[in-house]
Design goal:
The protein contains 14 helices and no strands. The chain has 292 residues and is mainly alpha-helical. The protein folds into 2 domains: 128 residues, Tetratricopeptide repeat domain (Serine Threonine Protein Phosphatase 5, Tetratricopeptide repeat); 130 residues, Serine Threonine Protein Phosphatase 5, Tetratricopeptide repeat. The two termini are 27 Å apart. 72% of the residues lie in helices and 0% in strands.
Length: 292
């Protein structure tokens, strides 16, 4: 019995390690974070309530902007500084318009954290489903892409708040419920509460890609590979993507279905057309063939 439990734990750990390796071998970000960055996604030991967490520090827009400017070229940084000066000196009735320009500019240069913070400012000034969804989606984009472990809980908290406000405006909105469910599964409450919310979305909209992907990845993280296979087989039938095929391959591999894993890995490789991913998958395929 103990040996069986240990074997299952090894399999689950193997899946996570595999997905981490994938993250660092391709340009597409946000699949699974490194181990040291996933403390907010862990399941509670007994499936009950999450343990009490320390207060999440507020994100400083000034500090985030300053850090982001250090990784872009000088002309873009100067352009953003000009926009920031315009925002800071704008009258209250013109703040939202100035914030929209900054949110778009930061998004254009792939800096989602400052972009999300400006979208949050807009949503607070002009509360609407669209504005809160834009803020929530951008905070989740930042959460999925950052490697700053200290920033993760704050980004997740802000995404959760944004989606909560969106659901309060329209409780029937599938995108808002999906976003809220994802934040709960990632640590903003009891995971099963988030799963139930996502399942409700899929029940009403069976082809909802975002909800199905989230349910599938959660199944892998929790070692429910049979459920993951069912979910990802359904996804690739209608929305084939490198991510979906890679997750499907991972689930197959962890159940010893090596030939099916090989086929799915190769489809992921073909769709991604990414040199680093191709090399990684070629090595995986060789390893799986050697197991035969």
């Amino acid at each position: 019995m103990i040996k069986s439990i240990r074997n299952k734990q090894i399999i689950v750990i193997g899946a996570i390690v595999l997905l981490i390796a994938f993250l660092f071998t391709r340009d597409i970000k946000g699949l699974v974070k490194p181990k040291e960055e996933t403390s907010t996604t862990a399941m509670p030991p007994s499936g009950g309530e999450m343990s009490e967490k320390p207060a999440v520090p507020e994100i400083s827009l000034v500090q985030v902007s300053s850090s982001a400017k250090n990784v872009i070229n000088a002309s873009l940084a100067a352009e953003i500084t000009t926009l920031e000066n315009t925002y800071n000196t704008a009258s209250e009735d013109k703040k939202s318009a100035a914030a929209k320009l900054l949110a778009q500019k930061w998004d254009d240069i792939e800096q989602p954290i400052p972009s999300a913070l400006y979208l949050e400012i807009i949503a607070k000034k002009e509360a609407s489903l669209k504005n809160w969804m834009s803020a929530g989606d951008q905070f989740m984009k930042a959460f999925d892409n950052t490697r700053d472990s200290l920033m993760l809980p704050a980004l997740l908290q802000k995404a959760h708040t944004a989606y909560t406000n969106a659901v309060a405006i329209d409780s029937s909105n599938a995108a808002a419920k999906t976003g809220l469910g994802i934040t709960i599964v990632n640590g903003m409450g009891m995971p099963m509460q988030g799963i139930a919310m996502l399942l409700d979305v899929v029940k009403k909209d069976p082809k909802n890609l975002k909800a199905n992907m989230s349910l599938g990845t959660f199944a892998i993280k929790s070692g429910q590979f049979d459920k993951a296979i069912t979910r990802f087989e359904s996804i690739v039938a209608t929305n084939p993507s490198p991510d979906a095929y890679f997750y499907l391959a991972t689930a197959y591999e962890n159940l010893g279905r090596n030939q099916e894993a090989i086929d799915a890995y190769l489809k992921s490789k073909k769709l991604a057309a990414n040199a680093k991913l191709s090399q990684f998958i070629d090595e995986k395929v060789i390893a799986l063939k050697n197991k035969h």
